[in-house]
Amino acid sequence: MGKLEFGLDPVTISRVAGEIKAVVDLGIEVCLVVGGGNIYRGATGVALGMDRVTGDYMGMLGTVINALALQASLEKIGVPTRVQSAIKMEQVCEPYIRRKAIRHMEKGRVVIFAAGLGSPFFTTDTTSTLRASEMGCDYLLKATKVDGVYDSDPKKNPKAKRYDHLTFDEAITKQLQVMDATAFTLARDNNLPIAIFSIDQPGAFTSVAQGKGKFTLITKN
Questions:
Q1: Which of 113, 136, 159 is where one domain is finished?
Q2: Are residues 87 and 148 located together in one domain of the fold?
Q3: Which of 71, 100, 174, 200 shows a CA-CA span of 20 to 30 A to 13?
Q4: What is the pLDDT of residues 40-97, one digit of tens each?
Q5: What is the chain's mean pLDDT, rounded?
Q6: Nearest CA-CA partner of 36 in 94, 122, 110, 102
């Protein structure tokens, strides 16, 4: 959204695309999962009296819009990109096929996974953890608005404690809200390290991809 109240901010999309290109230029294979909260959140529909399932499906469709916008911005700067959706819509993108996604990555293309898992009740966090596990990724990097995991909201509590490293069990036990418990459990079971960093900091994606910069690393041990 950038500084907008909702929707898509072209400046922000272009900046994020540039961050992604910088990582691709390092020779790193990249796949992405995008959310849709800037367009629609399932919880919003529930608050208005809509059933959760319908709200979640609407949110998934929002992620497809975001994925297509990001694809267009990436290809504009010379990064070949493919969008794969868990909900079939062949006129605008590919259906999710694991082996095809892996092949795209091997050829140097960025793959963007849209429409969540194609089922309600699963968060973007769980989707990204599952897709990263399926793709055999070395790391899952979660881009947020803060530079790591804190024991409370740093925007509300100036004395909030920041963690440099956590185990999955600690994150679950402490009920840290940066990701949901299902995502943490799935990552733990597949020994998939997670790095939480701020996408608002220029160059952060490149730094974290190289094991540098400021982030919180969550691992099995």
A1: 136
A2: no
A3: 100
A4: 877 777 778 889 999 999 999 999 999 999 999 999 999 999 999 999 999 999 999 9
A5: 94
A6: 122
Residues 213 and 114 in one domain: no
How many structural domains compose the chain?
A: 2
pLDDT of residue 6: 87
What pTM was estimated for this model as a whole?
Answer: 0.94
Does 21 share its domain with 90?
yes
Nearest to 116, CA basis, from 102, 106, 130: 130
Q: Burial code of 146-178, b = ≥16 C-beta within 10 A, e = fewer?
A: bbbbbeeeeeeeeeeeebeebebeebbeeebeb
Q: What is the CATH number of the domain that holds 67?
A: 3.40.1160.10
Write out the two tokens for 202.
Answer: 């220029």
Contact 171, 218 (CB under 8 A): yes
Query: CA 220, CA 139: separation in Å to the nearest integer?
Result: 12
